[in-house]
UniProtKB/TrEMBL annotation:
It comes from the Bacteria. This is DNA-binding response regulator. Residues 64-162 bind DNA. GO terms for cellular component: cytosol; protein-DNA complex. InterPro entries: CheY-like_superfamily (IPR011006), OmpR/PhoB-type_DNA-bd (IPR001867), Sig_transdc_resp-reg_C-effctor (IPR016032), Sig_transdc_resp-reg_receiver (IPR001789), WalR-like (IPR039420), WH-like_DNA-bd_sf (IPR036388). GO terms for molecular function: phosphorelay response regulator activity; transcription cis-regulatory region binding. Residues 1-55 form the Response regulatory domain. Residues 64-162 form the OmpR/PhoB-type domain. It holds the Pfam family Response_reg. It comes from Pseudidiomarina aestuarii. The keyword Phosphoprotein applies.
């Protein structure tokens, strides 16, 4: 299956998780197109680290160089953001946060995911780092513009979307 996907130029990251542990099996899996290979039994922390690495690595053909949500545009290689044609200056962390939200447009992202992806930290519910970062990002990206794009989903997290949050959630 993987070989067929690779021949069709599908560049989705693939991690083999298997009990096959010989060197020949590992080499064959990687030669077929796997990006990583993990043998059972494994430590869950190692699996998470490998998944994060694959997601961080990405692939040039997997992601567009421009992300657009309504009139908001992120130019990834240049680390530039514009909204309605107006340039917006963001810090590196603000850009990373906005990029994460834009790549997962419409998805509600929990604070724990944002903390691990943007700050590479385990989330502590007593910290307001995420809330402060979102507030600062909103001030730059949303306050002077319509429609509002950064939404809070109470008790769940944040999302970037043109559609407002349904309060019935």
């Amino acid at each position: 299956i993987l070989q067929s996907l690779r021949e069709a130029e599908c560049q989705t990251p693939v991690l083999f998780l298997t009990a096959r542990d010989t060197v020949d099996d590992r080499v064959k899996g990687l030669e077929l197109g796997a990006d990583d290979y993990l043998v059972k039994p494994f430590a869950f922390a190692e699996l998470l680290a490998r998944i994060r690495t694959l997601l961080r690595r990405g692939s040039p053909s997997t992601f567009s160089e421009l992300l657009k949500v309504a009139d908001l545009t992120l130019d990834l290689p240049k680390h530039r953001v514009t909204r309605a044609g107006k340039k917006i200056n963001l810090s590196h962390k603000e850009f990373c946060l906005l990029e994460l939200l834009a790549r997962r447009q419409g998805e509600v992202l929990p604070r724990s995911l944002i903390a691990s992806q943007v700050w590479d930290m385990n989330f502590d519910s007593d910290t307001n780092v995420i809330d402060v970062a979102i507030r600062r990002l909103r001030a730059k990206v949303d306050d002077d513009f319509e429609p509002k794009l950064i939404h809070t989903v109470r008790g769940m997290g944040y999302k970037l979307d043109v559609e407002p949050v349904d309060e019935a959630l």
